[in-house]
Amino acid sequence: MSGEQEYGNGTRVDVSVKDGDSYVYYEIKTGLSAQSCIREALGQLMEYSYWPGAQQAERLIVVGEATYDKDAKAYIKRLRTEFCLPIEYQQFDMKLGRLI
């Protein structure tokens, strides 16, 4: 795992994890809602993974402190099914200091 890392196309991923030949990109956001975190992160994650010359990731993960509510879950599910995007949302619990 590595912190903010630059890739060949000039972009900087907040956190990238390499597992064998595959990558997972995490974009960390501080929005007040899961909706705003997803909105802010989606374009960045798409660019990191799909811009010409980019290293495509197997999973694109939005990380936010905001609660992953039913509407956000429905939205992520729709993005995954309609557009086949490997997008996920993970909530970070500041009190526990970990993803939940």
Rg value? 13 Å
- The low-pLDDT segments are none
Based on helices, strands and strand pairing, what is the structural class?
alpha/beta
| Strand segment tally | 7
Number of helices: 2
- As a percent range, the share of strand residues is 25-35%
**Mean pLDDT score, rounded?**
91
Folded structure, characterized:
The chain is an alpha/beta fold and 100 residues long. The chain has one domain (5-99). Helix content is 31%, strand content 32%. The protein is built from two helices and seven strands, in the order E-E-E-E-H-E-H-E-E. The protein has helices at residues 34-50, 70-83, and strands spanning 5-6, 12-13, 15-19, 22-29, 59-64, 87-93, 98-99. The strands form two sheets. It has a five-stranded mixed beta sheet. Strand 3 and strand 4 form a beta hairpin. It is globular. The model has no long low-confidence stretch (mean pLDDT 91).
